[in-house]
Design goal:
binds flavin mononucleotide; alpha/beta; 11 strands; 9-stranded parallel sheet; 2 domains; 14 helices
Length: 339
């Protein structure tokens, strides 16, 4: 039976119109793997600095490599030098990434100060030179991640529209657009009206929205209302791979099952910790895992107590004992849908 295709990114065909966004510091192999387990069809890895991963000895590190059995998976690169970006793209495809995504969106001061990421939106020629170089260097689908301008000034808005139009002309297969300006960073509400306007102006282009995707049903409604081709799930998927299961159910017209109970949360948290601990020193793994604990604890009816115990745990054993103590299950009411 032929599968239904809901989203096409060049030759990549996805059966649902949403996937895991790149989230620096989060979307490592464990997070991508959990997303996939709960129904995410495609994920983009943490952003990588092109000039680093263009060096074979850096790219050889496990954290820059695609994981086992995780295709399709995308690599996102950051940089402003066309030749370096092309070299990085080629190297990433050679180690197994299926899609290359160019970051012209990051608002972090240390990135913007160097003229990379979101700062590139001030310079359409620079963006297009990079996109052309990356496009010409690989056969796989190429995407670009944008914001809706550096700010709302007329000049910044002109630059944004010019970049969108010329990116399509140079053969970029999809644009993921975050509905905030670089200056807004993460403040306020994402502006999906502009995203809808982009799709109306360029109906043949693949336009994927980003911003405030936290509620599964509201996000599918937004997709239908705006006429976009798809959307990405970003912060809404942190410690919450179940969002992909819910999105799939809604998209396919099925009932959303109850949220995870404490036993399922316990099992995922322990497995997540175990995967994070593989390849990291214990204290590093515990520090890194804390931000996921904060996310998982949102579903617990005694969230504050859970955090008090788990955030002060210093060793892996203490974290595991804390999870065992708070997620034993029997005494707590169902946590279904409580997030
Ligand atoms: C901690 C954090 C890290 C992020 N890292 C990246 C990144 O590496 N690459 C990228 O394209 N976007 C990155 N983003 C932006 C998200 O992919 C997404 O566009 C943004 O969070 C808006 O979506 P949301 O409101 O649904 O979270 C990051 C966002 C956050 C909060």
């Amino acid at each position: 039976m032929s599968k239904t295709v809901s989203l096409r990114i060049g030759t990549l065909e996805l059966e649902v119109p949403f996937f895991q966004a790149s989230l620096s510091g989060y979307t490592d192999y464990p997070m991508r793997m959990f997303a996939r387990r709960y129904g995410c069809p495609f994920a983009i890895a943490d952003v990588m600095l092109a000039k680093s991963v263009a060096r074979p000895e850096v790219l050889a590190k496990a954290c820059f490599q695609p994981g086992e059995n995780e295709h399709p998976v995308g690599a996102q690169i950051l940089g402003k030098t066309p030749a370096m970006m092309a070299r990085a793209a080629k190297s990433l495809v050679a180690v197994g990434y299926d899609v290359v995504d160019v970051n012209c969106a990051c608002p972090a001061p240390k990135v913007v100060r160097r003229g990379r990421g979101g700062a590139m939106l001030n310079d359409p020629d620079a963006v297009i030179d990079v996109l052309k170089a990356v496009r010409d260097s690989v056969q796989c689908p190429v995407m670009v991640k944008l914001r809706i301008g550096t700010d709302y000034s007329p000049c910044a808005q002109d630059n944004f529209w010019e970049i969108v139009s010329r990116a399509i002309d140079v053969g970029i297969n999809a644009m993921v657009i975050h509905g905030r300006t670089v200056s807004e960073r993460y403040r306020g509400k994402a502006n999906w009206d502009i995203l809808a306007a982009v799709k109306r102006r360029f109906p043949a282009a693949t336009i994927i929205g980003s911003g405030d995707v936290f509620d599964a049903r509201a996000s599918i409604d937004l997709l239908k209302r705006t006429g976009l081709d798809g959307f990405v799930v970003a912060r809404g998927a942190i410690s919450n791979p179940w969002i992909f299961r819910d999105l799939r159910c809604i998209w396919e017209g099925r009932e959303i099952p109850p949220g995870p109970d404490l036993a399922e949360l316990r099992s995922i948290m322990l497995e997540h910790l175990d995967r994070v601990a593989t390849g990291h020193a214990e204290h590093q793994a515990i520090g890194y895992f804390r931000k996921f604990i904060v996310g998982y604890a949102k579903r617990h009816p005694k969230r504050k107590h859970v955090l008090q115990t788990l955030l002060k745990a210093k060793t892996r054993k203490e974290v595991e004992e804390g999870i065992d103590a708070w997620y034993a299950g029997e005494d707590w009411p169902s946590v279904a849908g409580s997030r």
